[in-house]
Write a structure and sequence with these properties.
mainly alpha; two-stranded antiparallel sheet; 9 helices
């Protein structure tokens, strides 16, 4: 006799995932996409992705050329960024709730929390835009998306360091000290590297020296990798947390 399957136990947990696993998976998506695109471009599309308007020797592709100029790099990068974007929004909300739960008597603390949350969202949205609109398809949108991305990313890093200093200055937790230390170091490294990259980029455009664009591309790589590492510090921030799908307590049957 055919039996109708019983409904799931509403008192049980349907899904559980450690936050550390979520953090690693979220960062590994763009990391894999980045490494794949750069290596594939060097091996199979070297001439196309390293060419510049100056016509001087160049040995590394810029990130825009590596991720958006050729296939399959363009498809792999878009897949990886699209896959990691939803968890990024989830992590942004987790940080927002975390900051709201922290006690801070400073009158500007709530406003700084809102700005930081907005910058976190803008960083992810801008990354999606510059990913799905390549420089060869629409240079203006791609360029403005990149400006929005790097501005919101640096602003988010800076405010994150400030907020953690405001709320964690009396902490004795080794994980929190390590998280703040790496956040500050990665922010400073990202800021300095990006500033030097901008100078090298304009130097290349003005003087067209051989190898200048290669240095710029390498500095770009460091900016991207340090940005990923900064977001990876969530490993220490939420190491004891879990993502759980279950029934709310008031709906449970007793």
């Amino acid at each position: 006799m055919f039996q109708v399957p019983l409904p799931l136990d509403r008192d049980g947990i349907l899904f559980r995932l450690r936050f550390t696993t979520l953090a690693v998976g979220t960062v590994c998506c763009p990391l894999f996409g980045f490494l794949f695109c750069v290596i594939w471009s060097l091996l199979f599309h070297f001439q196309e992705t390293t060419a510049t308007h100056c016509g001087v020797p160049n040995y590394l592709p810029s990130i825009s050329a590596a991720i958006g100029g050729e296939t399959p790099q363009r498809y792999v990068w878009r897949f990886c960024i699209g896959l990691h974007s939803a968890p990024r929004f989830l992590v942004a909300i987790a940080y927002w709730n975390h900051y709201q739960s922290c006690h801070c008597a400073h009158p500007r603390y709530p406003r700084l929390c809102r700005i930081n949350f907005t910058l976190n969202l803008l960083e992810n949205i801008a990354l999606l835009l510059l990913t799905y609109v390549s420089s060869s398809e629409n240079y203006a949108i791609h360029e403005n998306s990149f400006i929005l991305f790097i501005t919101s990313a640096l602003g988010h890093m800076l405010l994150t360091c400030i907020l953690w200093r405001m709320t964690k200055k009396h902490t004795v937790s080794p994980e929190e000290r390590k998280s703040y230390k790496w956040k500050l170091l990665l922010f400073l490294f990202n800021l300095v590297t990006f500033s030097v990259a901008v100078c090298v980029y304009f130097h290349h455009n003005w003087y067209c020296e051989a190898g200048a664009y290669t240095i710029f591309a390498f500095l770009e790589y460091l900016v991207v990798l340090s940005n990923m590492a900064f977001h990876m510090t969530a490993w220490w921030d939420f190491g004891n947390k879990e993502l759980v799908v279950s029934s709310p307590p008031e709906d449970k049957r007793f």
